[in-house]
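haha ok so turns out i had the wrong file open the whole time. this is the CORRECT one, sorry everyone. sequence first:
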Amino acid sequence: MTAIELARFTVSPEAEEAMVEGRPSMIRALRARFPGCLAAYLTKEDDGSWLDVVVWRDRTEALEAARTAPSIPECAAWFQHIATSGGLRHVDVVHSWPPATES
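then structure:
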């Protein structure tokens, strides 16, 4: 079953540009290690906080990635931009439109 990872966090204003610029490298490294990473969306909330939305082939791979991503150098470097974490959660997709597909 497809799963979605939701990570809420803040970034200091002076680190935002570097965080966004470093994102493609981090996502490439994450996908190289975890091919079940199907899509990733970095969003900015109206209050200035960020919500990272990552779509996974299944919850097992999402949980494994959450556990081990800090050991991937590109991920560890990207995480350094985070000032405060609002938590990480995983949800299962019960229905989607368009239907979820594997890559």
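The CA atoms of residues 8 and 86 lie 5 Å apart.
again sry for the mixup
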